[in-house]
Design goal:
CATH class of the largest domain: Alpha Beta
Strand order of the largest sheet: 4-3-5-10-6-9
Shape: globular
Radius of gyration: 21 Å
CATH topology of the largest domain: D-Maltodextrin-Binding Protein, domain 2
Number of domains: 3
GO molecular function, one term: DNA binding
CATH superfamily of the largest domain: Periplasmic binding protein-like II
Protein name: LysR family transcriptional regulator
Largest sheet: 6 strands, mixed
Keywords: DNA-binding, Transcription, Transcription regulation
GO cellular component, one term: protein-DNA complex
InterPro entries: LysR_HTH_N (IPR000847), LysR_subst-bd (IPR005119), WH-like_DNA-bd_sf (IPR036388), WH_DNA-bd_sf (IPR036390)
Structural class: alpha/beta
CATH architecture of the largest domain: 3-Layer(aba) Sandwich
Helix content: 40-55%
Number of strands: 10
């Protein structure tokens, strides 16, 4: 019989990309997490994690077991919620930072009018961790974003609801030679230093994709975890970037020149819900509020 706690450790390690990070999520020491996975490998007779110089990656057998583990854990989370009398009256929404400050406040205001009894918990997570949280049953709705030309969630274990396509602007220092233009082609910025978010982030993926389409690889000279930091550095003249519209929320006068791109670049925002969750009253209330807010914004 596979022990649930060991399965939980395996799933957390796979989700976080390392045993140490997975252990922190569960409140364990790295040594205890390593022992749990080793015991699970011994009991199954197969290697479940490939140890890398930095982190771990599930083996094919590990990926299959992680999928089963996440399904079991999600079922247990739902059972706990039902026993606690919370099912149907609360919902957890995972969303990236730009959606948290640019979209969620308006949705919560609408929900207070349309579903005042609904208790909403917001989890600020980038799209990758948000998808993992949805798989693990740690949230019921996950807001994700990506280039509108891509479709990373098309074949995922969830139902996808399109919320909006938002414009993405080229951010240039005020003194840049092209700053006064009506728009700019990304290829015209090939010789500029680029500022972006860390590798594997949706921001950097969008920039890499746009630059590749223009025929060059960007010279990334700085990575920041927040668009506000990127805007500050662009404003100081250290480089250029691409900024989605939501990232400008609350900025009366951004310290940069913002130009539409030629051709236009868009970022897609989708809401992901599992098949089991999408028909529940809380999920429907949240999805309706998202769509209505977008329709009237």
């Amino acid at each position: 019989m596979l022990e649930l706690r060991r399965l939980e450790v395996l799933a957390a390690a796979a989700r976080e990309g390392s045993l140490a990070a997975g252990a922190r999520k569960l409140g364990l020491t790295a040594g205890a997490a390593s022992q749990a996975v080793a015991a699970l490998e011994a009991s199954t007779g197969v290697v479940l994690l490939t140890r890398l110089p930095r982190g771990v990656r599930p083996t094919p057998a590990g990926e299959r077991l992680v999928a089963h583990a996440e399904a079991v854990l999600a079922t247990l989370h739902r059972a706990e919620a039902e026993l606690a009398g919370q099912n149907g009256q609360s919902i957890r929404i995972a969303a990236p930072p730009t959606a948290v400050y640019g979209l969620i406040p308006g949705v919560l205001t609408r929900l207070r009018a349309t579903a005042p009894e609904l208790e909403v918990t917001v989890l600020e997570l980038e799209p990758g961790p948000a998808r993992a949280a949805l798989r693990a049953g740690d949230c019921e709705v996950a807001l994700v974003n990506h280039s509108a030309l891509l479709a990373p969630d098309l074949h995922g274990p969830w139902h996808t609801v399109h919320i909006r396509d938002e414009p993405v602007y080229a951010a240039l220092p005020p003194g840049h030679p092209l700053a006064a233009r009506a728009d700019v082609a990304v290829g015209e910025l090939a010789d500029d230093p680029w500022l972006t978010q860390p590798p594997m982030s949706p921001c950097q993926e969008l920039i890499q994709h746009a630059c590749a389409a223009a025929g060059f690889a960007p010279d990334i000279t700085a990575t920041c975890g927040d668009y506000r930091s990127i805007l500050a550095l662009v404003g100081a003249g250290t480089g250029v970037s691409l900024i989605p519209e939501l990232a400008l929320t609350g900025l009366a006068t951004p310290p940069v020149a913002l130009l539409p791109t030629r051709p236009r670049i868009s970022r897609r925002i989708n809401a992901l819900v599992t098949a089991r969750t999408q028909t529940t009253a809380p999920a429907r209330a949240v999805l309706d509020a998202l769509l209505e807010y977008e329709q009237h914004r």
